[in-house]
UniProtKB/TrEMBL annotation:
Organism: Lentzea tibetensis
Site positions per UniProt: Substrate discrimination: Y17
Annotated function: Poorly processive, error-prone DNA polymerase involved in untargeted mutagenesis. Copies undamaged DNA at stalled replication forks, which arise in vivo from mismatched or misaligned primer ends. These misaligned primers can be extended by PolIV. Exhibits no 3'-5' exonuclease (proofreading) activity. May be involved in translesional synthesis, in conjunction with the beta clamp from PolIII.
Domain UmuC: 8-184
Family designation: Belongs to the DNA polymerase type-Y family.
Reported cofactor(s): Mg(2+)
Principal localisation: cytoplasm
Name of the protein in its database record: DNA polymerase IV
Keyword Chaperone: no
Length: 397
């Protein structure tokens, strides 16, 4: 299988939300910081060192780290910091593939003569992000996306790790199996039950054995990664396949009216982002996490792409209504919405009968008001006086 010889950087900001808070408030520097109240959205390394983790309940986090400073999230500050960091990325190389708000792959092949070897480019990138944006960033360098991402994870926090081409497997094989993409708790437990603890032990198995143990897709995937076979190039201008937002609900009971209000708030948010990106959606996905920590999704595909908030909300409400018996019996701790199966907005068909009003005119007017005066300038009557909490954008697919 083809393996790129082009050096790839994986650049990943350290404890991003918490680092922005520490940057902007000198009193927080060097102290444990938790972003979010009921649920941890981010934790500084001072808090992580005491066991605090993202998505952990706030009460548990404070038991682990009683001296932590809890701050509310400031999504606009994080978005501005992300844009500034990505400007540094694009000043480094035009070949940038963003993975999320705080990480990206950079292809630095062909820059040796003008910018130096990849380790010099990576160190310069780290320095410029710190000087221009004021944030620490970790960079991993390798020939494949997979190994570059593993290298950055090993180098954290605020580090740089270059994996030489002739020592890739020497670096990779001693690592725990959890370092392989796609190995979560369930897959790791299956491997550990067979006394398979390292990537090297996975590599010693033939593909058929892994397929028998884990299934066709997972077995082939892990067999390839264990040998550092990852032919994917850095994709510039890749358009996201979904737009989503979710709300952690904590453990207190929620009425159907509460959930409807939260759902409306989420749909208002993601439909606005959909129109801003000039995309249209065909599939609405409802994401649920229950009190027993299990998860479920429900989805519905529309006949035609749309950007209309009310149509998307109606579809989401039907999905929520179908899930209510399960929610009632098992409780709910997270509600999320994703708009998937995206098309360019010029793919929207005009529907009969035609009316005197342009479809989406109300949505456009509300978007304009919120852009000018803030997201809370206009809201639904059903949301007045309700705590809809902090909605967190889902990572792009």
């Amino acid at each position: 299988m083809f393996v790129s010889t082009t050096p790839i950087l994986h650049a990943d900001l350290d404890a991003f939300y918490a680092s922005v808070e520490q940057r902007d408030d000198p009193r927080l520097r060097g102290r444990p910081v938790i972003v979010g109240g009921g649920v941890v959205l981010a934790a500084s390394y001072e808090a992580k060192n005491l066991g605090v983790r993202t998505a952990m309940g706030g009460a548990r986090a404070l038991r682990l780290c009683p001296h932590a400073i809890v701050v509310p999230p400031r999504m606009s500050a994080y978005s501005a910091a992300s844009k500034a960091v990505f400007e540094v990325f694009r000043d480094t190389t035009p070949l940038v593939e963003g993975l999320s708000i705080d990480e990206a792959f950079l292809d630095v092949g062909g820059l040796h003569r003008i910018s130096g070897p990849p380790e010099v480019i990576a160190e310069r990138l780290r320095r410029e992000v710190l000087e221009r944006v004021g944030l620490p960033i970790t960079v991993g360098v390798a020939r494949t996306k997979f190994l570059a991402k593993v290298a950055s994870a090993v180098a954290k926090p605020d580090g740089l790790l270059v994996v030489p081409a002739d020592r890739e497997l020497e670096f990779l094989h001693p690592l725990p199996v959890e370092r392989l993409w796609g190995v979560g708790e369930v897959t790791a437990a299956k491997l550990h039950a067979r006394e398979i603890d390292t990537v090297g032990q996975v590599a010693q198995l033939d593909e058929r054995t892994l397929v028998t143990m884990l299934g066709a897709a997972a077995g082939r995937h892990l067999h390839a990664l264990a040998h550092n076979r990852d032919p994917r190039p850095v994709q510039v201008g890749r358009r996201r396949r979904s737009i989503g937002s979710q709300r952690a609900l904590g453990r207190r009971p929620r009425t159907p009216d509460d959930l409807e209000a939260i759902l409306a708030s989420l749909i208002d948010r993601v439909s606005r982002r959909l129109r801003t990106a000039h995309r249209a959606c065909r599939t609405v996905v409802l994401r649920l996490r229950f009190a027993d920590f299990t998860r479920a999704t429900r989805s519905h595909t529309l006949p035609h792409p749309t950007t209309e908030t009310e149509l998307l909300l109606t579809t989401a409400r039907l999905l929520l209504a179908a899930a209510m018996p399960t929610i009632t019996s098992r409780g709910i701790t997270l509600l999320g919405v994703s708009l998937a199966n995206l098309h360019d907005d010029d793919a929207i068909q005009l529907m009969l009968p035609f009316s005197d009003h342009e479809p989406g005119a109300l949505d456009s007017a509300l978007d304009h008001v919120r852009d000018r005066f803030g997201t809370s300038a206009v809201t639904r009557a059903a949301l007045l006086g309700r705590d809809t909490g902090i909605s967190v954008p889902l990572l792009p697919d």
